[in-house]
Structure formats: C-alpha cells, structure tokens
Design goal:
334 residues; DHBP synthase; twelve-stranded mixed β-sheet; 11 helices; 19% strand; disordered N terminus
C-alpha cells in the first residue's frame, strides 16, 4: 500500500509505504541500509529508526521530525554485549541494570565512544542506549546488524504515536515507510537514567521508576533537579495535539457544563457532569500504567474531532504517577 505523494518543506517528497510485521522486515531493513528512515513499533511508542552510523540517515531523522540538532537521539542496540561498542568508561552498575531491565523501557546515559557522530548525540559527549523489548524492533536490528537511532515517529513536540495510523497522521510524505505492528503496549517513552554521575539520576521519568532501580542496585537513585537537561523529551512544550489542552481539577470538571465542541480525558467516574450527548468524554483507567498505555491515543482521538478545547483531569501527585504527570505537564505547557 502506498500513500499519496505530498510536497513538504526542503527536500522531502516521499510516498510513504505501509509495511506489515513480520512479512516486510526484509524490505524495512533494505530501506535502513539505503539510509532511509522507517517508523515501527517499540514496546513504548513507535520509533523513527535510522542507521546510527550513517550521518545522512540521521540528518533525515531530524529533517522529518523538524527536531533541533542539539536534541540527542537514543540508540537501540541488540544486546548488552554491544554497549561497549557505543559507550566508554562504563560503570559496573550499567551491567547490573541491563541484566534486570533489558530488554525493556530503560535507557542508559553513558559517555560516548570517540567515533560516535555528534549528530546522534546532539553535540554532547554522552550517548543514550537501550535494548528494546519489542520483537518488531529487535527483528529490524538483527536484520540490519546496525545500532538504530529512533526518536518517537512524529513531528517534533507533537503527540507521540502508539500505532501506525498515528505515525501517518504526522509523518506521511516525510519518511520512506512505516511498519504496522499494531498497538504499542507501554504507551509512554522509556525512563532515561544518567549513570555518569556519582548518584544515578533519572533525567526523564518513565515506566521504570526510582524504587525499581534502587531495588536492582541496592543504592540510592534520584530524579534530576533540572528536568530541562537536554535529553529526548526534555522540551517544556512537548507531546502536544493541535487542539489546546487545559488541566482542571476533578472538582472543576464536575461543575462544568461541557459544550459539544469540547473534549475530556478523565480517570474518575464522577468527574464530568455530562448533559450533552455530543460531548467527547474519554475515561481512562485509574491504574497509572494502564492510564499511560492509553494517554497518547486518547489525545489523538480527541484531536481529530476539530474541538475547541480538550480538558485533562488532574491525576494523583504520588510517585506512581510521576512519569505520566511529566508528560501531562508538557502537554498543557504554554
């Protein structure tokens, strides 16, 4: 299946192919080897994969997304055995963490090897590495025998995609192909842990929290005081739909008379006083992990309705909700 050709800014003018997993992995791998970008599923969100050793391919990633050049990319590798190829001065705890959490949604920030392109690392002397749990993505790594740089497969600061349809809404005509592998399971991006510091520091909250990491290491872990540090997903305004989003308390939502052109994402049954059958009200699970799995897809669903506004019900402030609250804060930032 081919999508209609679109004229986009600069040199991009693709007919974005929709491939299928697993039958089209060889086709996707061939595109990667040619220096193209291919979107496909990870367990977290859909990533925009490119050969991390090919500077032209990395340039296409930044061009397709409209991403600033100083914003580093995560490199996805096949196994812990590949870590020393990309990183140097690796502390022992890296191997402990890899043994517990890889493959999975934990990304490790390490000192980069001298040969790694500054285009991949945004000009920094560090590199972020991860072994993904998605068989879709691992199949492509094995087929290409490459480390694959893969930010989320969407335009910069737009909602992260959790299915192929989301990717096409943002990047159709801007990339060579998307591999449709169904819905991503986790629904938000990986945790990024800086282990170049004396105390391991979470610089991007995600599915793996501080308590899980502390249990694995038997030593303290902290969250970065300045979450504006330049790592993937650190922009103040991020993950945003085209529709304006406003955060409201449960009490405020319960008192509102919603208009037909307004939408709501809530997690408590009594938060919305719905008197109009035309209202777009989506209720997500109260469990933070299940809420996260559906959060971006809910934003996509409401963003396609040409609404005036989307209201987000405030979520609990405890540690279990820290990662999703990090995303919500960036969604509503102005």
């Amino acid at each position: 299946m081919m999508h209609s050709e679109k004229t986009t800014e600069n040199f991009m003018n693709y007919k974005t192919s929709v491939l299928r997993f697993p039958k089209d992995v060889a086709t996707a791998a061939a595109l990667i080897r040619l220096g193209e970008c291919v979107a496909l599923k990870t367990e977290t969100v859909y990533g925009l994969a490119a050969d991390a050793t090919n500077e032209d391919a990395i340039g296409r990633v930044f061009e397709a997304k409209g991403r600033p050049a100083d914003n580093p990319l995560i490199v996805h590798i096949e196994s812990v055995d590949d870590m020393s190829h990309w990183a140097k001065d690796i502390p022992d705890i890296a191997y402990t963490l890899a043994d517990v959490f890889w493959p999975g949604p934990l990304s490790l920030l390490l000192k980069k090897q001298h040969w790694v392109s500054d285009k991949v690392t945004g000009g920094h002397d560090t590199i972020v590495l991860r072994v993904p749990a998605s068989e879709n993505f691992m199949s492509l790594i094995r087929a290409t025998k490459k480390g694959l740089a893969a930010p989320s497969a969407n335009k910069y600061k737009f909602i992260s995609p959790t299915c192929a349809e989301h990717v096409l809404r943002s990047l159709d005509g801007r990339i060579a192909a998307v591999v449709d592998g169904g819905q991503s399971d986790v629904g938000i991006e990986s945790t990024i842990l800086d282990i170049t510091t004396p105390i391991p520091t979470i610089v991007r909250p995600g599915p793996i929290d501080d308590l899980m990491i502390e249990q694995a290491l038997s030593e303290p872990v902290k969250y970065a005081d300045n979450l504006g540090v330049t790592v993937p997903g650190s922009a103040k305004q991020h993950y945003q739909p085209n529709t304006p989003v406003q955060l409201l308390s449960t009490e405020a939502l319960s008192k509102m008379q919603l208009r037909a052109d307004e939408g709501v994402i809530s997690h408590t049954a009594d938060s919305v006083n719905v008197k109009s059958k035309n209202c777009n009200v989506l209720r997500l699970p109260k469990d933070p992990a299940k809420y996260s799995a559906h959060f971006y897809s809910s934003l996509y669903q409401l963003d396609m309705q040409n609404l005036r506004c989307i209201y987000l019900e405030e979520t609990p402030s405890d540690n279990l909700w820290l990662a999703i609250n990090n995303r919500i804060g960036r969604v509503v930032a102005r």
